[in-house]
Amino acid sequence: MDLSERETMNCTAYSTPIVRPNDDLLQLIFAAIPQLSERSVLCITSKIVALCEGAVVPIKFGTREEKHALVAQDAEHYLPPDKSKYDLMLTIKHQTLAVNAGIDESNVSGVYALLPRDPNKTAATVWQALRKQYGLQEVGVVITDSKSIPVKWGAIGTAIGHCGFVALNSHIGEPDLFGRKLQITQVNVAESLAAVGTYVMGESAERQPLAVIQAAPRVVFQDRPPTVSEIAELVIALEDDVYAPLLQAVNWQQHASHKHQK
């Protein structure tokens, strides 16, 4: 297939009814998306995944202290609330640098919505169901969340779970335009797809928590869920991160419930 014959990547968002705690995620997907083609990637917002699995906590007082305590308990690592006008907590959750461990009250009623408990497991469950429901061989799933970018305004999508494709395309050792071998270049496919899907789904009252990406280039589909080692390949140790001078300059804290987890 030459360049003139290649399909153009496109992304379509799908609406659902308002999602309530303990709704059936698979039934919501099947009702919203009548057809799904081969080599599609389904993006699902983490908010509806969390709601469907009941990962919510009732709001008792609605105070900042109540939310801060919940964030500290749920985050894998956290910093105390900042003293700025935003009054937020910087955290690490599901190996993602996030504000308030992804916990918020937007687009839900009377509860704090947490992040899904195991987004990679959920992605694998949805992936299996998509293959059976739509009769597909090659299909991908990305569980998305929103994140901010240091020194820039605005939110973009991020992937906290995936299934059905190789999430990291390595170009290490390949030549650049002038023959120099690339040393560290890797493309995070899952993050790239999440950014596209989240942009199309929207960030406010669109009520479009699902998006299907078709004809995405350079996606290598798999006929199995990612292995533990493949998921681990996406994670970089703080000391190896290019942002290590910032990440290691603060005193990350852990709630007692996380300190003894392996």
Structure description:
The protein is of the alpha+beta class and 262 residues long. Helices cover 26% and strands 23% of the residues. It contains 8 helices and 12 strands. Strands 1-12-2-8-9 form a 5-stranded mixed sheet. Strands 4-5-6 form a 3-stranded antiparallel sheet, covered by helices on one side. It has a two-stranded antiparallel sheet with strand order 3-7. The radius of gyration is 19 Å and the shape is globular.
Category from helices, strands and their pairing: alpha+beta
State the helicity in percent bands. Answer: 25-40%
Mean pLDDT: 94
Strand order of the largest sheet: 1-12-2-8-9
- DSSP strand content: 15-25%
**Architecture, CATH level 2?**
2-Layer Sandwich
The succession of helices and strands, N to C, reads EHEHEHEEEEHEEEEHEHHH
Low-pLDDT stretches are: none
Number of domains: 1
Q: Name the CATH superfamily assignment.
A: CofE-like
Q: What overall form do the CA principal axes indicate?
A: globular
The biggest sheet amounts to: 5 strands, mixed
Which descriptors apply to this entry?
single chain, 262 residues, alpha+beta, 60s Ribosomal Protein L30, Chain: A, five-stranded mixed β-sheet, three-stranded antiparallel β-sheet, 8 helices, 12 strands, globular
